[in-house]
Amino acid sequence: MNRAFNLSPSIVIGLLLALPGALRAATYHVDSAEGNDANPGTSPEQAWQSLEKINTTTFEPGDRLVLKAGSTWTGRLHPKGSGTARDRIVIDRYGEGPRPVIHGNGIAGGAVLLQNQQYWSIRHLEVTNNGSKEPRKAGILIRNHSVGTLCGIEVTDCFIHDVVG
Predict the structure, then answer these.
(1) How far is it, in rounded angstroms, from Cα 119 to Cα 151?
(2) In three state form, how does the secondary structure of 51-87 look?
(3) Confidence band, pLDDT 50/70/90 cuts, at residue 22
(4) pLDDT value of residue 10
(5) Number of C-alpha atoms within 13 angstroms, CB side, residue 60?
(6) Model-level pTM?
(7) Sequence-separated (6 or more) residues with CB below 8 Å from residue 74
(8) Which of 10-19, 53-62, 138-147 comes out lowest in average pLDDT?
(9) Which pLDDT value is given to residue 61?
(10) Average of pLDDT values for 48-75?
(11) Over the range 66-105, which residues count as b (16 or more CB within 10 Å of their CB) and which as e?
(12) How does DSSP assign the chain, residue by residue?
């Protein structure tokens, strides 16, 4: 016996909004050698290239930012947005080979910076910040500018070295 169900548009919209963030989340790929910032970033073949592209993007709960193994960037990685307890935003690597490298090149503050953000996981990166004699350098800096309590920051299997200042 076949039965048809008629759902009102408001019920359909309510069901879609109730879906977990992970079902709506995206994975963004970044490749320093073969990427292009005009790409959508949603596959290894359509990867972004630069830290600037990452730094001007606001990530949503459940999103993943994956950097190609063996890639190298110079500058600051400062992605925007916050995850939730249920749907963290994850920075990780993809592909085989060495950890992706962020060279801060002596920049004050962190070569990787999260500011007033929460529920991020940072995994499998190599971070340096060596160069100038400018003070207050950091490899990975988590900063809270009096916005209350921030939660859910996880840094796992990162190699942070040569941070001078």
Answers:
(1) 6
(2) HHHHHCCECCCCCEEEEECCCEEECCECCECCCCCCC
(3) very low
(4) 57
(5) 8
(6) 0.84
(7) 103, 104, 105
(8) 10-19
(9) 98
(10) 98
(11) bbbebbebeebbbbebbbbeebbbbbbbbeeeebbbbbbe
(12) --------HHHHHHHHHHS-HHHH--EEEE-TTT--TTS--SSGGG-B--HHHHHT-B--TT-EEEEETT-EEES-B--B----SSS-EEEEEESSSSPPEEE-TT-SEEEEEEES--SEEEES-EEEE-SS--S-EEEEEEE--SSS----EEEES-EEEEE--
| Residue 100 contacts residue 72 (beta carbons within 8 Å) | yes
Hey, what are 30's tokens? 């970044």
Tell me the two tokens of residue 39. Answer: 């790409």
Nearest to 122 by CA among 71, 75, 88, 74: 88
Rg of the chain (C-alpha set): 19
**Residue 17, token pair as written in the block:** 């909004």
pLDDT tens digits for range 110-161:
999 999 999 999 999 999 999 867 678 899 999 998 778 999 999 999 999 9
Q: Cα separation of 91 and 155, whole Å?
A: 10
